[in-house]
Write a structure and sequence with these properties.
Layout lengths: L1 E3 L8 H6 L8 E5 L6 E2 L3 E5 L3 E2 L5 E2 L4 E5 L2 H8 L7 E4 L10 E6 L3 E7 L15 E5 L14 E7 L15 H7 L16 H7 L16
Parallel strand pairs: 7-8
Antiparallel strand pairs: 1-2, 1-11, 2-7, 3-6, 4-5, 4-9, 9-10, 11-12
Length: about 220
């Protein structure tokens, strides 16, 4: 439900004391969208990252769980989370350029097999600007391989273990991502309308719309 593959650089004294490597702040969040608890005893990440779920890993209906690259670094950034929410540390790291991720099960086969990317039409803000990649409507069981199933999380750093309903299609953040915009005050098309004003007026940030501006008498 949430993939933080290219976190922001460590900035606080607590983070820097633990690790200066931004990759150590990666995490992957899982969400059980089913009506019953599921046992992840025979599940594992076999591509992208490597992690075998330990025995007695049961995820309740509607519950979330996290696997992280470095638990000490994760705690320095996000604080102590409820006991049992962080299942463990994975080996390897998520590629900043996009890669295949496989979550598989010995009994059920591949649960998820998809390739994310850091280039449009995939959301681009998660590529180092501090946003995580989050499913738009995870409870609907979206296709993880479709770029339109994902948006950048509204919060810098994402919200591991929390509901992500703050993300909404049509939001300013979604509009910025769809148009490859990172600077609110920028003017990519040179029409003297800053990006945040283009969004407010419903004009295109990469197509001159100077006709909407008042003309001097």
């Amino acid at each position: 439900s949430e993939l933080h593959y290219h976190p922001a650089e460590p900035a606080t004294p607590e983070e820097i004391a633990v690790s200066r490597d931004r990759d150590n702040y990666e995490f992957v969040e899982l969400l059980n969208i089913g009506p019953r608890s599921i046992d992840l005893i025979d599940a594992e990440f076999s591509d992208g990252i490597a992690f075998v779920f330990p025995p007695n890993t049961v995820l309740g209906a509607g519950a979330r769980a996290l696997v992280v690259r470095n638990e000490a670094a994760f705690t320095a950034r996000y604080g102590e989370l409820p006991e049992g929410l962080v299942i463990g540390q994975y080996s390897g790291r998520l590629s900043n350029d996009g890669e295949q991720v496989i979550l598989t099960s010995n009994s059920a086969g591949d649960l998820h097999d998809f390739t994310y990317n850091d280039q449009a039409p995939w959301p681009t803000l998660p590529d180092g600007d501090g946003h995580s990649l989050v499913l738009v409507e995870p409870a609907s069981g979206p296709d993880h391989a479709e770029p339109t199933s994902w948006l950048p999380h509204a919060k810098i750093g994402g919200a591991p273990g929390e509901d992500d309903n703050t993300i909404a299609p049509g939001s300013y953040l979604a509009w910025k991502n769809a148009n490859g915009i990172s600077n609110d005050g920028g003017d990519e098309d040179g029409d003297l309308i800053m990006n945040f004003a283009e969004y407010a007026m419903g004009t295109l940030p990469r197509s001159p719309d100077s006709g909407v501006l008042p003309r001097p008498m």
